[in-house]
Fold this sequence. Notes:
By secondary structure, the chain is mostly beta strands. The protein has 3 domains: 34-164, hypothetical protein (bacova_03559) (Immunoglobulin-like), CATH 2.60.40; 167-293, hypothetical protein (bacova_03559) (Immunoglobulin-like), CATH 2.60.40; 302-460, Sandwich (Jelly Rolls), CATH 2.60.120. Residues 5-24 and 176-180 have low confidence and may be disordered. The chain is 10% helix and 41% strand. The protein contains 5 helices and 29 strands. Strands 21, 22, 23, 24, 25, 26, 27, 28 and 29 form a 9-stranded antiparallel beta sheet that branches. Strands 2, 4, 5, 7, 9 and 10 form a 6-stranded mixed beta sheet that branches.
Amino acid sequence: MKINIWKLLLAALVVPAAMGACTDERNNFMVDDSVSFVDSDGDWQEFKTLPVYDEAYRFPVVKNGKGLSGATIYIETPDSVIDSYNKLNGTDFVALPAECYDFSTNELRFSKKEIRKFVDLTWNMDAISALDQTKNYVIPVLLTVAGDALPTSEDRDRMLIYPKFAFASMAQIATATSKGDLVYNGEITLDVPVTSENVEIGYEIDNSLIAAYNEKNGTDYKAAPAGLLALDAAASTISAGESSTNFSLRLSSSKLLEDISVLDEKYLIPVRMTSISNAARIGDESVSYVTVAQGTVKGPWTLLEGENNCYAKDPNDGAAWTLQYTADKLFDGSSEVGHEWISMFATQNEFPMVFVVDMGNAHIFTNFIISDYSTHQGNYRDYELYIAEEYDGANTKWTLVAKGKRDYKWTGKPTDYDFPVQTLSAGRYLKFQIMKAEYDMTKGDYQFGRGKLGDVYGEGL
């Protein structure tokens, strides 16, 4: 077969022409190359706060765009970055002395195709601790490009890094009205969360602060008697990733049960921070004043048993307006209109009626109060109240602490009746029993053993 040399030559000329006519348009929709900062999670923050105890921060520098140019990028720390930020934001930052920190490199060389490099910033915690702590020190960082070979992204070529001390603080005042051999948990917080290392907080009870507190606040709190109150531990740890911890103040229920008259006084327990590890600092709010005094102890409490014993669940009466009369209203902390409980109304009630609640914390009661509607529905007068430390359904070990029967008195409104405690006991769970109805349950307003109550609560600690 003969080869036509003219056809081959023509094909050789056509191919380059065709290739020249095909334009590479892949870069048409990409921006030109530029450099910028970006945070490690892809977000951008011009101002970055870091706890001093981290002692290190890694940040990326990226080259965005088509990838057609290489560049040398410098890491600089000019004061002008701080000055412009202060002017714009009304802040008073000053430059951290250069001897307090160090960059892993001040120069990054990018090839055309490289898009990301990292710089490690470290600082000397001891050197920073020795500085004037009334000043706010920051590290300014600015990206520049050698020979202006590439532009920097607008507003992403600079940032301020604030290596901040974490200050611990305590709640200034709290009332320990519920403890269970009795525990009150007070909170200690850091304004800058722990990120890499645990922080240990030390504290103690400092009764020397009581006199100054009383003078300032016009109070007459006393120091707690020996053996009544103690800290569970002398220190707590804020774990990495967290920003708070608790101290536990334990009130001895056995001491109270020996002599409940100690509750005749009001006590103040100043818990003062004494130490803190790493680079964190003790803040101005370094004392938590916990008050201990007998007072009202009421719900809302969580109903565990007796939910179905109420007008709202009466199977023989489906009126919509009855749905407000639920069993939890007995323990919701209010005797106001709209917070009443009514028993089954069209169905025979069984006695004793039993209700069990979780009070959330352990309490010691000296008196119980039952808000009774002494009207044509107020025929409940005979009660028993029990306390338990732990709840295990039918196996719960209950202690009978109060029982009584009040005389009937027509008032036509919610009336509070006292039921003094006969046995002192500390516990988190309360069982309330209505023993019987006092009127004929077969006729009249009291048919089926109907009754209506406002609230069940107590006095104590």
